Amino acid sequence: MSSSVPASASRISLRALGSQLRHFVTSSPSRFAIVVFALLILLWTALLSLPIATADGKIPPLSDALFTAVSTICVTGLTTVDMSAYWSPFGHVVIFVGVNIGGLGVLTLASLMGMVISKKLGLSAKLMAAGDTNPLRAHGGAVNESQTVRLGEVGQLLTTVAISALIIEIGIAVLLYPALVMAGVDPVSALWEAPYFAAMSFTNTGFAPNDGGVAMFADDYLVLILLMAGVFLGSIGFPVIYSLAKHHWHFKRWSLHAKLTIVTTVLLFFVGAAVFLLLEHSNPKTFGSMDAVDTTVQAFFLSAMTRSGGFNVIDMNDLYGSSMLVGCMLMFVGGGSASTAGGIKVTTLAVLAIAVWSEAKGRQSVQVFGRRIPSDVQRVALSVVAWGATIVAVSTVAITQITGDDVIDVLFDVISAFGTVGLSSGVTATLPDAGSYILAATIFMGRVGTVTLAAAVAATSRSQLYSLPVERPIVG
């Protein structure tokens, strides 16, 4: 009897530990996202480590399998190997499925699965889905009027997510197929390449299934425009797609989030193209050897891809240093919230820019489009930029120290990793194992999100029933 008592106590303690662990993981959407993303990365690492996943039938090094898995699930597009030649058809299918799962978002996918099983969403599932579509849900406390998607609309949003992703990818693939065939791709090969490119553009990943990538379509404007369209639709975010589907082109009825996302995205698209044109027009390795039409198209394509798309026609090493720095800025900003793009998000930039303008004008509150932006949103925006800059700085210093490469090249790849962009100066392909692990961690933190990561580590927000004396330090 004495031996059965310890065994029973051990089972009870294990059950209690499991219950506490389950509560810790599922009590917060942010923690749940981190855990599920990590588990998916481990699963995809295992799948890509199989001999059947490589073209030569050999087991790949752990660093290459892990890095590709992280880049796939986090829809980044950076790679330490030649994607078209290194992986087998099985490996490419694994990568294709992985980017679609990562693009939709684990929380959204889990909620969709729950809705299919139960035919309706419970309150818990709605809260988790709202956490994925609204960054402010990662924090405790009441949700105010700045909430992007109301709980009652989450079911409709999830339906929009699934349907829009399916329709957009199929639509782009259907349009890409004849464009690829006309560009010289074999009709049979195009049956695979069209949906592959469609998925990689909509998820803002940037992997290419063919030898030479998108560079072989440098003079095919139709292919480039379709890829830009896919990247744009994926980067604006599902809440914006939902708002557009609900209110169509009635701008006044759009949510403030949709207005800020669309306006800032379009503005950065045109400003980025104009700056690249100005800086690179005399560069014989890039725009200097092109005519006016080619230069214009390539400038817009480069502007779109540095936002998070990841496809490139021009070798990033051929850009002037000033253009690479501009590319770093665009990659750091990224796309829209709750989208397949990464970065600090365009709404974060918009909120900070509006706050700075309001301060310069001496306004008591931050206002735009007839709405007031509350102070908690401004604090979140500042936190996102601060955490993002810290992650980029630490990773850049560490990788530069390990590799001894030029700091601008390392910075470019690190920001590309953080913003889940996929463009590279060439540093990533030559990284030692230690450097690839650091860059993989940067990708993970960039995809999961700085606010989500901070909220997962920090304790739940607690109400403070007192206020401390005010004292103003000198700032500036």
Automatic annotation (TrEMBL):
An example Gene Ontology molecular-function term: monoatomic cation transmembrane transporter activity
Any single Gene Ontology cellular-component annotation: plasma membrane
GO BP term, pick one: metal ion transport
Originating organism: Microbacterium bovistercoris
Pfam families: TrkH (PF02386)
Subcellular location: Cell membrane
Source species, domain of life: Bacteria
Membrane topology type: Multi-pass membrane protein
Keyword set, alphabetical order: Cell membrane, Ion transport, Membrane, Transmembrane, Transmembrane helix, Transport
Main location: membrane
InterPro entries, per database record: Cat_transpt (IPR003445)
Protein name: TrkH family potassium uptake protein
Ranges that cross the membrane: 32-53, 65-87, 93-117, 157-180, 221-244, 256-279, 343-360, 380-399, 411-431, 437-459
Keyword Magnesium annotated: no
